[in-house]
# Entry
Amino acid sequence: MLASITSMAQAQEADTLRSFWGIDWGSSKEEVEEAHESEPYDLNNDDIVGYEVLVGGKAAITAFYFPRGRLARGRYHFTESHTNENTYLTDFNEISEFLQEAYGAPEVDTEVWLDEVYRSDPDRYGFAVSVGDYRLVEKWELTGGRITHVLYGENYNIFHVVEFSSTALEHLFEASIEQ
# Structure
């Protein structure tokens, strides 16, 4: 069973990020699992719980990250596959609109060209993403958290991710790496 997300804000104020998918930062893994009706997606990591979801009508895996046992980050990893690589750019723009409806314009909205060989050919932008030459990045800084939306690629694979993170709990990732 896929859960569907139709509002990124999830009853939060547009300039505040207190939770991910309606679950407060700092919650336990057990609290997240109790809040979901479906079985978790196997991510082979005890500190991450994932579920198959639809976000803005697009298939994704939502991943909840628990450094030191507390929810501090959540990500949507979009899983749709396209034969036309430029369709990933369309997906990015649609999710961008979805995010902007909830949180307003991003503080950072940039295109990064690492190699400009395809820059003059918009029909090849998707290919440029797949080989790592081109990426799109958006960032929102909110009270209590940060949202990062990226489209990037490497080795002919394209990755589309939206990450929500708690600024107050970022230190837990550093502490869990040190142990």
